[in-house]
Design brief:
By secondary structure, the chain is mainly alpha-helical. It has one domain. It is built from 17 helices and no strands. Helix 15 runs antiparallel to helix 16. Pfam families: MatE. GO terms for molecular function: antiporter activity; xenobiotic transmembrane transporter activity. One of its GO terms (cellular component) is plasma membrane. InterPro entries: MATE_fam, MATE_MdtK, MdtK-like.
Length: 464
């Protein structure tokens, strides 16, 4: 049985491994920033964490480009329609660059009020504001110039991955994550080498991390753009009809991203209302959760791409069997980061210069996180299956239901109502993951996604 399942998911795992590494390296920019900024204290951690929340929220809103475009590319690739693949790729790149410029401009102009909205300072008189919006806005003013490059890199990497070339984005990510790491150390701490009497120049602190991220992001986007330009044999502006196809398939994913990240904003506001220590602990745990979820996230993307190709080739029954095997692969794969999280909880938290109370609360939250990650694995793989089959609306509906009926009331009741603080609120967040996995499994068993997918496949092949 296990050999049979491995044979089914083997091609998916082979495709997912480079995507997993790419996701780890892409997120490593934020992790390195968080780790080094952790040496600057709670204020810097809170500032960087709130900006990271804004970036995540915004990128998920534009996930329709990468998700919808990738599924279309994989389906048409399976149907051997290379001309359509190239047209969709051009359209994705143009749309990604335009959205990035718009988003970067918004962040630059509205930096302080956006951060103040997250910290709830916006609802207070200006003289009563905390220091976080002021510090975070300075960081965001610099990172805003990197936002177009970040979004463009994500879109181009998605094109490479969907066409089967998962190695090129990884190579570029490796190079510029090294650039980011060196830039962080030099600019944050002023090149304070071991054995020296002090830094060689004035340390820039939090702003240094922003400049390092900007340099690395611009370089990565430029190199990826040149590579995709050569691969496609030039550059075209794309077509509205192709963008319409991408939006039709991906818009529910953007709404789902709005729901999902909106829930994260709710939790951010909740933690900030509990206190600075609670939010600092939450920001640290959230960083580790993001890193430990990357492998399963890669499996989700690979599953969607591979099943899309099966559908394009008309192998519907094989797609159904492979989808279920992929869920088991996700759960088994998650056992690795869960084990690492349990064994390395103390060393990981020891990397941060935080108060004893923050440390203790974050430690217990890491244990709660470890128990919920298996459910989160299910919640990561199944959406890729449903979206590949065209059942994108059910994903956004389940996201909303699980937050509205479980996550929000449970975290508010346990964290504030029962006065359990960070730990109580985090238990509520974990209960949301359990409830969500139940809803996803029930939806998958209906096989609605398979029917939609078969119909979509026939329509797209005929239209080509």
């Amino acid at each position: 049985m296990w050999r049979s399942r491995y044979a089914l998911v083997g091609p998916i795992v082979g495709l997912a491994l480079p995507i997993m590494l790419q996701g780890v390296l892409f997120s490593l920019m934020g992790f390195v920033d968080s780790l080094m900024i952790g040496q600057l204290g709670e204020l810097a951690i809170s500032a960087q964490g709130n900006v990271g929340q804004l970036l995540s929220f915004s990128f998920l809103l534009f996930a329709a480009l990468t998700t919808g475009g990738s599924i279309l590319i994989s389906q048409f690739s399976g149907a051997q329609q290379e001309r359509k693949v190239e047209q969709i790729a051009h359209t994705m790149i143009v749309a990604g660059g335009g959205c990035g410029l718009l988003l970067g401009g918004i962040f630059y102009v509205l930096a302080k009020p956006l951060v103040a909205l997250l910290t709830t300072d916006l609802f207070l008189p200006v003289e009563q504001w905390s220091q976080v919006p002021e510090v975070a806005s300075g960081y965001l003013h610099i990172v805003a110039f990197a936002v177009p490059a970040m979004l463009l890199s994500q879109v181009i990497a998605a094109v490479f991955n969907a066409t089967g070339d998962t190695k090129t984005p990884v190579k570029v990510s490796v190079a510029f994550n090294i650039v980011n790491f060196i830039g962080n150390y030099v600019l944050i701490f002023g090149l304070d080498l071991p054995g020296s009497t002090g830094p060689m120049f004035t340390p820039l602190g939090l702003l240094g991390a922003a400049f390092a991220t900007l340099i690395a992001s611009l370089g990565q986007a430029l190199v990826l753009f040149v590579m995709i330009y050569r691969r496609l044999g030039g550059f075209k502006w794309g077509q509205w009809s192709e963008l319409k196809q991408i939006i039709q398939l991906g818009y529910p994913n953007s709404i789902d991203g709005f729901y999902w990240q909106g829930a994260r904003v709710f939790y951010t506001v909740l933690m900030n209302s509990i206190g600075a220590i609670a939010y600092a602990g939450y920001a640290i745990v959230r960083t580790f959760k993001g890193l430990f979820m990357l492998p399963v996230g890669g499996l989700q993307q690979a599953t969607g791409i591979y099943i899309g190709k099966l559908l394009g080739a008309g192998e519907l029954e094989q797609a159904k069997i492979t989808a279920r095997a992929a869920i088991w692969a996700g759960v088994i794969l998650m056992s690795i980061p869960v084990t690492l999280l349990v064994l390395l909880a103390h060393p990981l938290l020891g990397l941060y210069q935080i108060q004893a109370e923050t440390y203790q609360q974050a430690y217990w939250c890491l244990w709660i996180l470890a128990g919920s990650l298996f459910f989160t694995a299910v919640n990561s793989v199944i959406p890729g299956i449903l979206r590949a089959g065209g059942d994108t609306k059910s994903v956004m509906n389940i996201t909303l239901k699980s937050f509205a009926f479980m996550g929000a009331p449970a975290s508010l009741l346990l964290g504030v109502g029962f006065d359990l603080g960070l730990i109580g609120a985090f238990i509520g967040i974990s209960l949301e993951e359990i409830f969500k996995s139940y809803l996803f499994i029930r939806q998958l068993q209906k096989d609605d996604w398979l029917n939609n997918l078969a119909e979509r496949s026939k329509t797209q092949v005929a239209a080509g």
